[in-house]
Design a protein that fits this description.
Blueprint (H helix, E strand, L loop, with lengths): L3 E2 L2 E2 H16 L9 H8 L3 H9 L6 H14 L4 H11 L2 E9 L4 H15 L5 E9 L4 H13 L3 E4 L5 H12 L4 E4 L10 E5 L1 H14 L5 E7 L5 H17 L3 E3 L3 E2 L4 H14 L3 E6 L4 H10 L2 H6 L1 E4 L4 H8 L5 E4 L2 H17 L7 E5 L2 E3 L5
Parallel strand pairs: 3-4, 3-5, 5-6, 6-7, 7-14, 8-9, 8-10, 8-11, 11-12, 12-13
Antiparallel strand pairs: 1-2, 13-15
């Protein structure tokens, strides 16, 4: 008969003892590691190893991991049982991620990296619910965030900073569902945290690239998706700050909104290239890089050669633009590290007891040029 306890059968632990008895009697090779050998290698007691193998008592996940590492080192035959016991001891979280525009390859890539990070998480079982919102009206985003947040232990959101979204964040916080702002911060005081780049440094770095690679006088155009994205607004302000300080030979036009639409970005840059002979640089602070690249490809070769383009994402279109030499630099989030940090921040927000603490996690952005692509 087979009895179940905590997902590990008593049959498993009995089998372990039978094998060790056989070892002592000479029925199997004497050099096979025993439970005592494993306990010594892991620096734990024999009773602790027995509890892990039997699944009959609570043992910390970190201790089980140490025993598993030792078992792998000495070649202990119960690795499968130890792994199963570790999985059972882990806490389980359902985390929601509300991203934007399912049609954009960048957000699909971000979603993929989040899922990969969740699947490989070592200290907890993570159920990642990744959703995309295509209609970017604040009312729609707020409603979607509430629905997703209520079904999860914590949520992360990429969205413009708007009072309706702030109210959704507040409502979820009062229900014990913390919300972390991702890539672009929110002003809602009830947000649990922010994970993203230092956008002040990012904007000044974008300006440095354009200023240092443009010797002749000219004009520079900034494209933003929406002024309510804090990440774009802050980087635009610091971009202008650097230009005022260090690039007197370049003038900056008023920013133009693309509404995160490539077609609008294409229309704007095509018009500028047709009307202005002195367009020297374009900083794409938001979405629309594919439209910008299409407009640049359609321009005469001389215009393409003199134009400097800096953007802030590293989707497939950006990689193509870099490979063609049409983009001077891409300043972007390291997606693997950012995904890991986002999940950790959400778990920390769930576990924290001080509701007044906002977890600010800023990661260095990557700088990609045609030469290090």
């Amino acid at each position: 008969m087979r009895y179940q306890n905590g997902g590990v059968t008593h049959k498993s632990i009995i089998s372990q003892y039978i094998l060790e008895t056989m070892t002592q009697c000479g029925d199997v090779p004497m050099n096979r590691p025993t439970i005592a050998d494993l306990a010594k290698a892991a620096n734990v007691s024999v009773s602790t190893v027995n509890r892990i193998l039997a699944g009959s008592a609570s043992v910390r996940t970190a201790t089980i991991q140490r025993v598993q590492n030792a078992a792998d080192e000495i070649g202990y035959y119960g690795l499968g049982t130890i792994e199963a016991r570790k999985q059972e001891s882990m806490p389980s979280y359902r985390l929601g991620f509300l991203l934007q525009q399912s049609t954009r390859e960048l957000y699909q890539l971000i979603g993929q990296k989040i899922r990969e990070a969740a699947a490989g998480w070592r200290d907890a079982r993570i159920d990642a619910a990744v959703e995309f919102v295509d209609h970017l009206e604040p009312e729609n985003i707020a409603a979607r965030l509430k629905t997703l947040g209520r079904a999860c232990d914590a949520a992360a959101v990429v969205a413009g900073d708007h009072p309706l979204i702030g109210q959704a964040i507040q409502a979820l916080r009062h229900q014990g569902r913390p919300v972390v702002a991702y890539i672009t911060d929110q002003s809602a005081s009830e947000r649990a945290g922010y994970v993203g780049a230092d956008n002040w440094k990012l904007g000044r770095t974008a300006a440095w690239f354009i200023a240092q690679t443009t010797c002749h006088p000219g004009r520079v155009q900034v494209l933003i998706g929406n002024h309510r994205y804090q990440c774009q607004d802050i980087s635009e302000a610091s971009f202008r700050s650097y230009m005022r300080e260090h690039a007197g030979h370049l003038g900056i036009e008023d920013s133009l909104p693309t509404h995160e639409e490539p077609k609008e970005a294409h229309r704007l840059i095509s018009k500028l290239l047709a009307e202005r002979d002195d367009l020297a640089g374009v900083y794409v602070a938001g979405g629309g890089i594919s439209g910008v690249l299409q407009a640049v490809r359609e321009a005469p070769e001389e215009r393409r050669r003199r134009l400097r383009v800096v953007c802030r994402d590293i989707g497939p279109e950006t990689r193509r633009g870099l490979a063609e030499g049409l983009i001077t630099a891409a300043l972007c989030h390291p997606l693997e590290r950012t995904s890991d940090q986002l999940i950790q921040t959400m778990i920390d927000a769930i576990r924290q007891t001080n509701d007044g603490v906002i977890l600010q996690r800023t990661l260095p952005f990557e700088i990609i040029t045609p030469e290090n692509l």
